Structure formats: C-alpha cells, structure tokens
Amino acid sequence: MNDLKIMTIFGTRPEAVKMAPLVLELQARPGVKSLCCVTAQHREMLDSVLDIFRIRPDYDLDIMRPRQSLTEITTRCLSGMEEVLSEASPDLVLVHGDTSTTFSGSLAAFYRKIRVGHVEAGLRTYDKYSPFPEEMNRRLTGAIADLHFCPTASNAENLRREGVKTGVFVTGNTVIDALKTTVRKEYRFVSPELSDLPFETKRVIAVTAHRRENYGEPMENIMLALRDIAVEFKDVELVYPVHLSPVVGETARRILSGVPRVRLISPVSAEDMHNLMARCYMVLTDSGGLQEEAPALGKPVLVLRRETERPEAVAAGTVKLAGVKREEIVRLARELLTDPAAYASMAKSVNPYGDGHACRRIADAVLWSFGRRETPPEEFKPL
C-alpha cells in the first residue's frame, strides 16, 4: 500500500504556530508522506515559527507584498497553489482556521478534486463582517472541507446545525500542543525590548490589537483605554508589540507614544509572545489565538472586540468580552487590577481548548478516514 500523501498549507504566523506541531506529528507517522506548503502571507513572522519547530517547507509561494490587498493575497495564493497541487498531487490537503491562505488553499484543492481537512473548524460569529474577512473564510472553507477538526464540542455542534453530518471530529486545539514546545521556565527573550521587563516589581500586561474591523473609532477607543490604565495604575507596565499594519501603527503611536509605563515595541516571535504571556499578569487582545493560549497559561484575558467566536472561554470564565468602548475596557481592567478574587476566578478557571493531544487525534482521524486505522480517534473532552 502506498504512503498516504498529506499536504499542510499555511501562510501566517498564527497558522504556523498551530500547524507546526501537526506537521511534526504527521512526519512521525508510519505510512504517511508529509508535505508542507507555505504561502508566506506573513513572511518574517512565519519564518520565525518555522525556525522554532525546525520545519523546512517543501513548497514556498512567497506571496507577501507591501500593503497587499485581500484580493491580491487570495489570487496569488490560488494561482500558486494550482501549480503546487498539480505537481505534488496529495491525497489530502490540511488547512487551518480562517485566513485568506486557508480559503484559497481549500478552493484550489476543490478545483482539483482533492479532499480537504479543516483544522480549527466550526468557529462562528454569524456576522460575515466580524471578524473580517475571517468569518467568511472559515465558513466557505467549511463548505468545501471533507474532514472537520473542531477544537470543542460547541464548534462541532455549529457544523451539525449547518447540515454537516459526517467527517466531524472534536480534537481540542493544536495551539495547546504548540505551547509544550515554546514555553519554558528557563526561556530567555530574543527581543531586547522584552529582556528587561520588571516582572518582579510590576504587573505586566501583554497587549495586542490589530483587527481590521476595529480600524477607526474602535481602535482609537482601545488606545485611549490603554493610556487610561497606564496612567491610573503606577505599578503596571503595558507591553504592546505593534502590528505591522500602517493603520494600527499610526493610531498606536499617535495616542500612546511617550505615555509612562507603555512600551510600544516591534512584533516579537511566537516564542517570545508565548513566554511573555506565561509571565505577565493578564492579557488585553483582539486576537483569536491569544484567547486560547493565555487561558492555557493561567492568565485572564479581556477581549477587545464586540463578539467572539470562542464563547467556550467566556463560559469557562477565563475570558471576558470587553468590547471596544473606552470606559468598559478600563472598568474591566480595573476590576482585575484591584479585586484579587475576581482575578483568581479567571486565572484558575479550566481551559476549555485542549489537553496537548490535538495533533495526535487529528492524525488518527485522518488515518481512520482513509481506512488506514481500525478505530476512530478519541474525542477531546475538557476536564
């Protein structure tokens, strides 16, 4: 019997963090020929993750261009993937989440009648413009996919309500697997801007904010709230790796430059970010991935968005939805900074996203779906 040829496709740093441990799992499986294709939708940030996990892609489309539009990203991905899939002819393509690479990779595979597996499937806000364009990317990918690897049971239920009856697996989230590699007690920060953070004397707050739907007034409100928090609490230090988006950078620097106890720094590697979260007091973010990562590290998260496609963390108590109103963000941050009981209740809640074995479950599900394994994978169930 020929080896099963499986190609993983990803292009951004968040995808790479979550797919890298799966690539390594597939490489270790007998009877599997693991191929890796990157689009490099994010070039430098992607490469840093590949280095951490010591992954060398078989194909690299290198599509990144300055100020690239969504249309340009999608068309370059689609065109490049056509040639790659023609040459490699995999039995299965695995894509992750909700990026333009995700949708383009799944569509390119569909055009060649290649089966598609969707890692981190079933997340929904049911607002096609929030998050933008991610909500439609993942819904369109879900319509194409043959296998759906859902982090949680509620993600799987979303798909079943939409009429997906087969090929649905609850696996946990692969990012929890990744943290076992990236977070270490003896870790030393690569970024010099992080190496002198006063973790022993101040409460360090890790911040990220970059979402397209927050451009304009919402982003202004977020930055003003960060300024208010830094001014009010003298024992706090805010660390904000500013996204490369010119829109984000201009807003952040205009409002926060020169504010005491606010560090606006360059983007950091995934390892630096994970270890920053492991050592910080709490996290303020509009990122999806950090809503999963920080709870696994015992850190409360305030989500700087109007809604979240990860309601499990809200239900579990590890995350609170702060929205994009200045006063509400400050109020919730103040509560965590002044009420030890409120902080402890979030920090000690059970993380609903995984147990570090998602990649094993996904590989088992793939092999079972292709008749290479006798039993289906076990289902992830949070404690």
TrEMBL record:
Keyword Transmembrane: no
One family name in Pfam for this protein: Epimerase_2
Entry keyword set: Isomerase
Molecular function per GO: UDP-N-acetylglucosamine 2-epimerase activity
Domain UDP-N-acetylglucosamine 2-epimerase as annotated: residue spans: 25-366
Domain of life: Bacteria
Enzyme class: isomerase
Enzyme Commission number: 5.1.3.14
Family recorded in the similarity comment: Belongs to the UDP-N-acetylglucosamine 2-epimerase family.
InterPro entries linked to this entry: UDP_GlcNAc_Epimerase_2_dom, WecB-like
Protein name as it appears in the record: UDP-N-acetylglucosamine 2-epimerase (non-hydrolyzing)
